[in-house]
UniProtKB/TrEMBL annotation:
One of the GO biological process terms: methylation
Top-level taxon in the UniProt lineage: Bacteria
Swiss-Prot/TrEMBL catalytic activity: a 2-demethylmenaquinol + S-adenosyl-L-methionine = a menaquinol + S-adenosyl-L-homocysteine + H(+); a 2-methoxy-6-(all-trans-polyprenyl)benzene-1,4-diol + S-adenosyl-L-methionine = a 5-methoxy-2-methyl-3-(all-trans-polyprenyl)benzene-1,4-diol + S-adenosyl-L-homocysteine + H(+)
PROSITE patterns, A to Z: SAM_MT_UBIE, UBIE_1, UBIE_2
One Pfam family it belongs to: Ubie_methyltran
Pathway: Cofactor biosynthesis; ubiquinone biosynthesis; Quinol/quinone metabolism; menaquinone biosynthesis; menaquinol from 1,4-dihydroxy-2-naphthoate: step 2/2
Listed name of the protein: Ubiquinone/menaquinone biosynthesis C-methyltransferase UbiE
Length: 243
């Protein structure tokens, strides 16, 4: 089944993605922990470990949502650095801003409502850009990658953390059963919203696999690209540099 998503037009996809994240924003963090059984925390920890980010640097956490990565980067870059948490969806941004503020994280984090496809930042501005579980939702992924390339400083790096293609057939079967049957039921039970979680499963299935995404990064100019599979390729961390 493809739930008809393949047929939707660009504008419809944009508003559908908006609806999904408005409706999940309040329950987003708890659903993340439940659905991934807490493992998203390890995937994010690995991303931080690969970031090479240093005190005083500028970081863009794109599609940053409720701010898990932004919170960690804020502590690393310190008062002389800057973190921009950017997201297209103001409900997600608000949950993120409230969460970080409650954690006492203030001063070096800015919150910007922006579309990844046309970033409202100067050229050559950031030392690091992360986009975690966000690229999958973007309609024009190449435009978004090109926009990230533009705002990255020479020497800067991009990290894309995203669902990808499991490396074994057996894992792929278990995972499909989980995402198409268990996830929507969990969404229904916990968030009273099966539809959004069905969209999630479908968007994961449609996302480019590891090699395709790496090729797309190279096409817009990223160099020394590589990826690392996590949890058997259920998730992959892609890396690329601008020189
Ligand atoms: N990065 C966070 C994390 O890992 O927990 C949030 C990930 S959440 C699954 C995806 C986020 O992407 C949502 O907050 C959504 O609003 C945002 N998003 C979707 N399309 C976007 C776009 N075109 N530009 C910027 N953000 C977008």
């Amino acid at each position: 089944t493809d739930f008809g998503f393949k047929q939707v037009k660009k504008d419809e996809k944009v508003s559908m993605v908006a609806d999904v994240f408005h409706s999940v924003a309040a329950k987003y963090d708890i659903m993340n922990d439940l659905m991934s059984m807490g493992v998203h925390r390890l995937w994010k920890r690995y991303t931080i470990d690969c970031s090479g980010v240093k005190s005083g640097q500028r970081v863009l956490d794109l599609a940053g949502g409720t701010g898990d990565l932004a919170a960690k980067f804020s502590r690393i870059v310190g008062p002389k650095g800057q973190v921009v948490l950017a997201d297209i969806n103001h409900s997600m941004l608000k949950v993120g801003k409230d969460k970080l503020t409650n954690m006492g994280i203030i001063g070096n984090v800015d919150y910007v409502q922006a579309n990844a496809e046309c970033l409202p930042f100067d050229d050559n501005h950031f030392d690091l850009i992360t986009i975690a579980f966000g690229l999958r939702n973007v309609t024009d992924k190449s435009a978004a990658l090109a926009s990230m390339y533009r705002v990255l400083k020479p020497g800067g790096r991009l990290l894309v953390l995203e669902f990808s293609k499991p490396s074994s057939q057996a894992l792929s079967k278990v995972y499909d059963a989980y995402s198409f049957h268990v996830l929507p039921r969990m969404g229904q039970l916990v968030a009273n919203d099966a539809e959004s979680y069905r969209y999630l499963a479908e968007s994961i299935r449609m996302h480019p696999d590891q090699d395709t995404l790496e090729g797309m990064m190279q096409e817009v100019g990223f160099e020394q690209t590589s990826y690392h599979n996590l949890t058997g390729g259920i998730v992959a961390l892609h890396r690329g540099f601008k020189f």
